[in-house]
Every structure is written in structure tokens, then in C-alpha cells.
Design brief:
The complex is a heterodimer of chains A (96) and B (483).
Chain A lengths: L4 H10 L6 H18 L34 H5 L5 E2 L2 E2 L8
Helix pairs in contact in A: 1-2
Chain B lengths: L7 H9 L5 H19 L2 E4 L1 H16 L10 E5 L26 H8 L3 E6 L33 H8 L5 E6 L5 H7 L2 E4 L19 E6 L2 H11 L29 E5 L9 H15 L4 E5 L7 H16 L18 H12 L2 H14 L4 H22 L5 E5 L15 H6 L5 H6 L3 E8 L5 E8 L4 H15 L7
Parallel strand pairs in B: 2-3, 2-4, 7-8, 7-9
Antiparallel strand pairs in B: 1-3, 4-6, 5-6, 5-10, 9-11, 10-11
Classes of the chains: A mainly alpha (96), B alpha/beta (483).
Chain lengths: 96, 483
């Protein structure tokens, strides 16, 4: 598969990643080489090998449902770039 | 006497005998950091106030006869582990102003063992890189040769220990990020078995691969720090329920009749001859102590880099989706609507390599490519893990190179991402299989740059790796840069 500017635009859109036209061209060239190299995996006979998402046998970890969180609203909202009246602010979502 | 060259063990003795105080020791380190950090650029932030407070508390504890294993010892922490009240930036514009409201469990355990935080250490942005050149704070430099990289992504953590700018540090390792910088800087670095150390508070890169571990001046210190940070943590659901072990106790027992496996594929063409002969000489020395060696095969080795980069980038693209410019992190001042806010904050906040990996990972997970790329990589991952299991039927530890070369020059690879990725061939398989691996220096190359030997073990055999590493250190000695 050949990576081109159109493909980079499509995946940048999926990733909500704003990139410039110059970056689009650079990433298309980079990804072309990188994905081209990774396609060597398609030549491997992996037969009925099961995909391995994780090295540990993952299981649900359960615990008693005991409330532990104290109210840290102020402390946590201090990390945000824009807060009003204890709430995160964002640009208008609904058009007037 | 130069306090900055002493090990944790040596410093602890001086502290408990009251020959020095932790405040004196901490001030000596801080003075040296102010003097030398401009040369090596290893610290992203110096937490002077917290350090002195911590040192005073440690002196009190020591005075009251309540000293812990690390009481009063000054440390540095890679800047991707949360430290309450001290900036945690991941060397990214995205988190440049982030001061976490909580502390990572591994760091919290070091605090409760009495360690003193000097500051946060430079790294590749979001731990993506092998050279610490992808940092908003600029490139960190190798104390053995400032024109060379210290390795990465935990380059600041390794270089700070080598340069005597902290007594030990923590790094994180997703595909080799503790081991390769430890090798480049001539210090000891351990990537523990997946699940042994809590990842709570570590800014996630690739969650199925990430692991926190110590970087130290010698193997004894490594065992000591591992003992402090390894424990079950209910806040990390992948943290294993093992009882805490004592790692430093049995180091002097020797290697016994340990069977060493030498993976044929790791010693193929592409490996620097000087590194190969240095490692083989070290194996001969171990044989003189009772060990035996044999050739083993890891036939999936050529597939390690593609599988690793597909899986780690896919996980990264999902993990980094949380950076949306709203709850924390950088927000673009230019966005006119919500969609633009996401796109512009992420586009302006993330650096070049991070964006490259998000694109690669998003592509690998996207409709039409998921099976061909991501799913295939997961199958290959199992094949790679099974190669290790088969090798460990014949041997107890694998002795391998850490990287195909010693430290390379700044700028040498940064413009060629694939060339940079290919260097991970000897380290990333360990992460894919979740194994522990210890890097110990075993000599210098013809340029005088350190060579790191990598010991790989079965899951939860850290004790054995440390024992063999300790034996190597006794045989070949320790290494430190001249300055």
C-alpha cells in the first residue's frame, strides 16, 4: 500500500489531529517508508495463532464499592486551561 | 571525597553513621546540578524546595533511628511520572504547564522509603524516541561524550546517574527506553517483568508494554530500588499480586551453574564487532565462575521492530486521545469551535514524532487495515513470545547486546525515523513478551564509549538476573565518565 497525502489527511481527521499541508507531505513520505517496511509481516505464516493483546491473563479486578473520593473539584479544575464557575469551558457547540 | 560518585549503599552508611546529613548531601547535589545541568541538559525541572524539605524529614527520621532503605538519598524521576505539586511535562508542549494533583505509586513508594526528589528528568516527548532528541527542552547530552546522545527515551534518567547529578533515577521502558540509555551511559538499568511495578501515575504510552524501572550506579543499588518500588497496587489492575521480595539479599551467592543462552539472530551481521567481542569475553569470564553457555534461536527477531511499532503506536493513538485541550494540557488559542479546538490543540501541542506515531497507530487500527496490520502484529507478538519460551527451555538467562552500536552522534538518525526504529531490535521483543531484562556495563569500545550487556530472564526472575549482573560487575568492574 502506498501512503499519500490523501491517506494522511484521512487518518489525521480520524485522530482529530490538525496538521499543516507541509506536514501532510512529510508524513506521507515517512509513512510510505515505515508502513512499507511493516508490510513484511503479511508474508509471515501465522496460521491459527491467536492474537496476543496482553502478556498477562487479564481478569476482572473486583473490589468492595466503598466511596473513597473526597471532593477535589477545585484541585482538579486547576489543571484545566479554561474554567468558569468550577466548570470546564469550551467554544460554543450549538450554533446560534 | 566526591559524594556524587558514591552508591546508595555507600551514602546510606555515611548517613546512618551521621558522617553527613541528607541536607548536606542534597545541597551538594543541587550545587552540582546548577553547575553541570547546562552542559548535559538532563533536568527538565529542579525541585529545590521539595528536595530540602524531604532531606530535612529524612535527617529527622535517621536521627530518630527510623531510617528506611533509601532515607535521605537524592533521586531524579523521568518526567512522565506524576509528582504532586511538581511539574510533569512528558517533555511536551502539550503538558508544559501541567502540575499533577497526585503522585505515581512508584514515586510514592520511594518517598515512603525516604528518598529525596531533586527534580524531573529529560526524555523523548511522551517516551517516543531512542535519543532524547524529541524533547521540548532540547536534546540531552551523553556525559561520556557531549556530542553523543544519551539514548532514549529515558536519556535524562541515565545521563543524570552517569554524570553524578542524582544518586539513582527511575525510567520507563516500552521498547527499550530504560535499557538502551543505561547501555549508552554506562550505568545499570532494569526493565522489570510486566506487572511487577505499578504503572499508576505513569503517563501512558503503550499500556500493554510500559513498565517503570530503576537506573543506578551499580547492581546492588538496582536491587535496592527495585525492592522499594515492586509491590501490588490496587490502583493498577495489571499490577500482579505477588508478595514483596527482598532483591538485594542474595546477590553474592554467585552464578552457580547458570545456563546462558546466546541468541544466534542477535549476534548476526549488523551488530558492532566491538560489542560482540566484549560480550563474548564477559560470557567467558562467567564460564570461569561455573556458568555454561549455548546457542539458542529466536527466529522471530526480524519481525520484532514492525510488530512493536504497530502495536505500540496503535496503543499510543488510543492513549493520547485523552489530550483534548479541555481537562488539562495545552489549548490552542485560535480555535473557533469545538472540533477545531480538538484538532488545533493536538496539532500544536504534540511534536513531530508523537504525531507521526499517532498517525501510524490510527492507520493500523482503521477500518480496512485493522486485520492486515494491527491484528497481524498481535499474532506475530505471540510467536515472538513463544520463541522466548522455547529458548528458556534450554537456558536460564539470555545474554544479548542491548543495541547494535554504542551511543551515536546527536543528529545522526533523527531525520530518518525508520533507521531510528530499527535500533530497537534487541530490546523491544522483551516488552512484547513481558519479560524482565537487566543491562549492566561490560566494557568500553574503541571510542571509549560504554557497552551494555543485556540479561533477559523468564517472568519474575529478577533475582537471578541481578545475581548474574552482580557477578559481571565484580568481574569487569564499574565504569564512570572522567568528568
Amino acid at each position: 500500500m502506498k501512503a499519500d497525502v490523501e491517506m494522511v489527511r484521512r487518518i489525521a481527521d480520524l485522530a482529530a489531529l490538525g496538521i499543516s499541508e507541509k506536514e501532510e507531505t512529510e508524513y506521507a513520505a515517512d509513512l510510505n517508508v515505515i508502513i512499507g517496511y511493516m508490510e513484511q509481516l503479511s508474508g509471515i505464516d501465522s496460521g491459527d495463532v491467536k492474537p496476543m493483546e496482553h502478556v498477562l491473563p487479564l481478569k476482572n479486578v473486583l473490589r468492595e464499592d466503598v466511596p473513597v473520593n473526597e471532593n477535589r473539584r477545585e484541585e482538579l479544575t486547576q489543571c484545566a486551561p479554561s474554567v468558569d464557575n468550577g466548570c470546564y469551558t469550551v467554544p460554543s457547540v450549538v450554533e446560534a | 571525597m566526591d559524594l556524587r560518585r558514591l552508591t546508595i549503599k555507600e551514602l546510606s552508611e555515611k548517613l546512618t553513621k551521621r558522617e553527613i546529613s541528607s541536607v548536606e548531601l542534597t545541597k551538594a547535589y543541587l550545587d552540582r546540578i546548577h553547575e553541570d545541568n547546562p552542559k548535559y541538559n538532563v533536568y527538565t525541572c529542579i525541585s529545590e524546595e521539595e528536595a530540602l524539605k524531604g532531606a530535612e524529614a529524612a535527617d529527622k527520621a535517621i536521627g530518630a533511628g527510623e531510617a528506611h532503605a533509601l532515607s535521605g538519598i537524592p533521586m531524579g524521576i523521568k518526567d512522565n511520572m506524576c509528582t504532586k505539586g511538581v511539574a510533569t511535562t512528558c517533555a511536551s508542549k502539550m503538558l508544559q504547564n501541567f502540575v499533577p494533583p497526585y503522585t505515581a505509586t512508584a514515586v510514592e513508594r520511594l518517598y515512603s522509603n525516604g528518598a529525596v526528589l531533586l527534580g524531573k528528568l529529560n526524555m523523548d516527548e511522551f517516551a517516543m524516541g531512542s535519543s532524547t532528541e524529541n524533547s521540548i527542552f532540547g536534546v540531552a547530552r551523553n556525559p561520556w561524550d557531549p556530542d553523543c546522545v544519551p539514548g532514549g527515551s529515558s536519556g535524562g534518567s541515565a545521563a543524570a546517574v552517569a554524570a553524578g547529578l542524582c544518586a539513582f533515577s527511575l525510567g520507563s521502558d516500552t521498547g527499550g527506553s530504560i535499557r538502551q540509555p543505561a547501555a549508552f551511559c554506562g550505568v545499570v538499568g532494569l526493565k522489570p517483568t510486566y506487572g511487577l511495578v505499578s504503572r499508576y501515575g505513569l503517563v501512558a504510552f503503550a499500556s500493554s508494554l510500559d513498565q517503570i524501572g530503576p537506573i543506578t550506579r551499580d547492581v546492588y543499588d538496582c536491587a535496592l530500588v527495585l525492592g522499594a518500588i515492586a509491590a501490588h497496587d490496587p490502583l493498577d489492575s495489571t499490577s500482579v499480586e505477588k508478595t514483596t521480595e527482598e532483591y538485594a539479599g542474595e546477590l553474592e551467592e554467585g552464578v552457580g551453574q547458570v545456563r546462558i543462552g546466546l541468541p544466534r539472530e542477535y549476534y548476526d551481521a549488523g551488530l558492532d564487532e566491538g560489542i560482540k567481542s566484549c560480550i563474548m569475553n564477559t560470557v567467558k569470564l562467567l564460564e570461569g565462575q561455573g556458568a555454561s553457555s549455548l546457542e539458542v534461536s529466536l527466529p522471530g527477531t526480524p519481525n520484532v521492530v514492525p510488530a512493536y511499532y504497530l502495536i505500540s503506536s496503535a496503543e499510543a493513538s488510543a492513549n493520547l486521545a485523552r489530550f483534548d485541550g479541555i481537562k488539562y494540557g495545552y489549548r490552542s488559542p485560535n480555535a473557533k469551535n469545538l472540533s477545531e479546538l480538538y484538532r488545533m490543540s493536538r496539532g500544536e501541542g504534540f511534536g513531530r514524532e508523537v504525531k507521526r506515531r499517532i498517525l501510524l497507530g490510527t492507520h493500523a487500527l482503521s477500518s480496512g487495515y485493522h486485520d492486515e496490520l494491527y491484528n497481524k502484529a498481535l499474532k506475530v507478538r505471540r510467536m515472538i513470545a513463544e520463541d522466548f519460551s522455547a529458548a528458556f527451555e534450554k537456558c536460564d538467562v539470555i545474554v544479548a547486546p542491548t543495541y547494535p552500536t554504542t551511543a551515536f552522534k546527536i543528529g545522526e538518525k533523527i531525520e530518518d525515523p525508520l533507521k531510528m526504529y530499527l535500533g530497537d531490535i534487541h530490546t523491544a521483543g522483551v516488552n512484547l513478551a513481558g519479560l524482565p531484562a537487566l543491562v549492566v556495563p561490560c566494557g568500553l569500545d574503541e571510542r571509549g564509549m560504554p557497552i551494555g550487556l543485556q540479561l533477559i530472564g523468564k517472568p519474575f526472575t529478577e533475582k537471578l538476573l541481578l545475581k548474574v549482573g552482580y557477578a559481571i560487575e565484580k568481574l569487569v568492574g564499574r565504569f564512570a565518565p572522567r568528568n
